[in-house]
Here is the input.
Amino acid sequence: MVEFKNVTYFYEGLSSSKVKALSNISFKVEQGDFVCVIGHTGSGKTTLLKILNGLFKPSGGRLYINGADVWADKNAFSKLRKYIGFVFQNPSYQLFEDTVLKDIAFGPKNLGLNNLEIERRVKNAVDVVGISEDLLTKSPFELSGGQKKRVAIAGVMAMSPKILLLDEPVAGLDPKSRVHILKVIKKYNKDFGVTVILITHSMEDVYMYANKVLVLNKGELFSYDSVDSTFKCVDRLKGIGLDIPDISKVFLKLKNKGFSVPINVYSVDMAVEAIKSILLKRRGNG
Ligand SMILES: Nc1ncnc2c1ncn2[C@@H]1O[C@H](COP(=O)(O)OP(=O)(O)OP(=O)(O)O)[C@@H](O)[C@H]1O
Ligand SMILES: [Mg+2]
Here is the structure.
């Protein structure tokens, strides 16, 4: 559905110096994928999303949507912009109306929808994301960081994008809100087949929600694979300063020693459940 082919990106610095943010990146995302993008600070995650969104033009290489070259074909560019919804790392950049309600309605209005449909979409987005009614008449700038993120996500969801790009959407939220928002995004992905590409610093998020993981290291594509295959290479990940939870390592070791255990275990609770189900199966087998 979307494809990077040998994409390189330079930021123009002061006095004509250039900063290479991405180097020769190639990967493909299919319809319905849930891709988590991970990597250290400065590894190029946000830059990659801004290129995907059509906000930045690659300095080298190509971006394709459904096989068409976005920067060589005007139709492909407008298709990309129509398909994609983007939630910025800092939501303040995308909120600008004088009330929360108007802000969420801004996207659907721009799509030229009728008032009834706009109302329906806004109400639905407000409900699923969990924004309380009393906030709707407030200015987005009176809200807390977490509330702003919810409003930004609701505004993008109300546009019903085919591809949802989220730059650390739950960073800084309390644990309950984190889980709520991520579950909403996952449900959206599952129920409507919406493609999700989400930047996170949490390995647990990757385990819980992704089906593919894109790992960036200093502007280079370190790996792009399924969750299990990515985390099997713990030592390689460690080499670039990323790590998986200790409990996951225990299960990986057991698997490597020939025990029949799941390897997508990242918390003690999950480990308890996994062991329980193994014991039950054994009992069942006499
Ligand atoms: N506007 C800019 N001008 C010059 N260099 C930039 C600019 N924005 C980012 N960079 C540089 O490009 C590289 C990639 O930055 P990017 O913001 O994409 O990283 P990131 O992985 O999103 O980091 P973080 O986890 O901190 O959000 C970094 O070296 C960064 O310093
Ligand atoms: Mg970033």
